[in-house]
Each structure stands twice: as C-alpha cells, then as structure tokens.
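Q: what sequence does this backbone want?
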C-alpha cells in the first residue's frame, strides 16, 4: 500500500518541468532550495542560458497539461549587462491566486560583479538521483558560505546549522582540493572563514567572510576598472529600479478565503512591516518608497499589493489578472 502523500499542484508542476527539461536536453542547473524536491518552498532558481528554448518548452508543456497560463516577467531582465539579468516565468496551473515561479539566472553576483559566470555555474554540474542537475558542489559550497554569512546576521539559526553542516561535510570529502578552490575564488579570507566555521567561532567567521568578499571585489574590479565600473553602475541602477519603482505593479495574489474586510484589516496591520522597510531605505529615497508602497502585506507565503486602491480590491480577481496581463508577457493562456 502506497502511503505517499499526493503532490500539491505547484510541486506536481515542478516535477513535470524537470522531467521535460531532462527530455529536452536544455542545459541547466538548480542553484538552491532543492532539499525537499519537488517542493522548493518558494521560487525555483536555475542557471539556464538558452532562454528561447526554455520559453518554447514551457509553452508546450502548459498546452499539454492544460495549465491556466504562463506569464513572463521581464522587469528583472532589463540590465545593460546580460550577466545581471534574471528571466522570470510564472506558471498558473489550476488557481489564479497561486503560481509556480521559475527564475533563470545568468551569473552569481557579489557586490555587483559576477563571482561565477553562467558557464562556471554549469561546468562540473552534478546530477541528483531525484532527477535534476545541481551546480558544481565546490561552487555550491562557496555559495553556502556566503548564505551563512547573510543568514546568521538575519537570525535564522536552523538554516545556518543545515548549510554549515553541508559545507563541512563537503570540505571533509574534498580535503585540500576544496580549500585550494576556495582560496582561488575568495582569497585567504575564504580559507580562514572555513576554519572558523569548523571551530564554531562565529565572529571570526563573519570577519573572514567580509575580508574575503572585499578581497574579491578589489582584486577582480581592479583588473578592468572601466568595464567593472560600468558594470557596478548598471547594477546600482537595476537595484534602484526594481526596489523603489516596483515595475511589476500591484499584481500580487492573496489567500483565496480572505474576505475583503479581513484583507483590509491585514493591510492596516502590516504597517509595522512597512515602517521597518522604510527605516532601511536611504533617507533621501524614503519619500519615493513611501509614495510607491503605501502598504505591504504577507501571509501564508503569498504576497500582496503596493498602494492598493479600493476599486482594485472590489474587482478581485479580474483586476489583478488584467494588471498581470498589462505588465507581463502572456506566453499561453487557456480557460
């Protein structure tokens, strides 16, 4: 008797996507969050260079399985530097108020510069027996060190412990070969960070990681200062555009069973989150952010609405869908 729980629509769509990728021969690798595959918990992050082939595959897959729609968001793919672009695809399988988002990256940036190009991310990729490709384990461990550095500061001890254990396990398996790779990427600071992680000395770990990141930035950036200066400027403009102008608009779903009065109360209650975000903005940009994002709401893993108008909420969900269509390219839509 099979006691396996049925997959959610989103997880099932994820499984179908990876099966189709395997059959297509399109080169890709999963960047992170694959531990509970096919449930990624959030977005599916891939490195995937051949976006036109992927776009065609996704459209064909949606037609075969009669998914409601597939939309492409180009707002993260406007950078003057191809390595900075993220091609975002949203798959609506059975419910307009939930979707599977797949993000296609073309590099792994650090301080605005490409720490790993998409070619480097795909080189030596590793096949997971569950049916998908992962990035090179050495690259993945460097990436996890950077994640630990961020997550520890954000007070997420469970992820820190899990990622730290995997880094140490990989380092033990690879021995000197991984340390050599780490020094080549992040300098001596990377090796010191690994040693501090082994000893559980967190202050020393964070100090070494800061030194490693700045070593990479200064060493890499000084090789071609004009080119990398332009790359940094483009990255800054990209971040300002996305963070403060919110080009995706107010197409964000909210829980199906949330009545309008409860939703409005939730938006009011979210002022604490909104004020927290305001405080993190540079003071000269606070008025821009406050004007554009008069409210922010997050519950049950679903997002909601910058600056919602009463008429927009009353028209739910048709106004949300029309907003989506106005601001995003529809690849396929089936009723």
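A:
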């Amino acid at each position: 008797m099979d006691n396996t729980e049925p997959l959610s629509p989103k997880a099932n769509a994820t499984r179908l996507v990876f099966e189709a990728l395997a059959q297509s021969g399109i080169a890709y690798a999963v960047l992170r969050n694959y531990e509970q595959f096919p449930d990624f918990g959030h977005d599916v992050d891939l490195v995937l260079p051949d976006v036109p082939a992927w776009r065609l595959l996704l459209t064909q897959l949606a037609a075969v399985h009669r998914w409601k729609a597939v939309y492409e968001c180009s707002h993260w793919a406007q950078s003057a530097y191809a390595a900075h672009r993220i091609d975002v695809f949203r798959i609506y399988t059975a419910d307009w108020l939930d979707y599977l988002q797949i993000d296609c990256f073309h590099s792994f940036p650090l301080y605005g510069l490409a720490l790993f190009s998409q070619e480097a991310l795909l080189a030596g990729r590793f096949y997971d027996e569950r049916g998908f490709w992962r990035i090179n384990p050495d690259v993945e461990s460097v990436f996890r060190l950077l994640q630990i550095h961020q997550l520890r500061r954000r007070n997420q001890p469970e992820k820190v412990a899990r990622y730290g254990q995997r880094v140490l396990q990989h380092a033990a398996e690879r021995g000197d070969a991984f340390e050599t790779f780490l020094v080549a990427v992040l300098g001596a600071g990377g090796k010191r960070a690994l040693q501090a992680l082994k000893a559980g000395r967190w202050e020393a770990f964070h100090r070494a990681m800061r030194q490693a990141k700045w070593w990479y930035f200064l060493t890499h950036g000084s090789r071609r200062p004009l080119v990398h200066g332009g790359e940094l400027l483009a990255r800054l403009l990209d971040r300002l555009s996305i963070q403060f102008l919110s080009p995706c608009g107010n197409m964000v779903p909210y829980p199906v069973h949330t009545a309008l009065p409860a939703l409005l109360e939730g938006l009011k209650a979210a002022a604490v989150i909104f004020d927290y975000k305001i405080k993190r903005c540079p003071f000269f940009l606070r008025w821009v952010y406050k004007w554009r994002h008069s409210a922010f709401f997050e519950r049950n893993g679903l997002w909601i609405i910058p600056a919602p108008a009463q008429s927009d909420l009353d028209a739910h969900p048709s106004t949300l869908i029309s907003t989506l269509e106005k601001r995003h390219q529809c690849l396929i839509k089936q009723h």
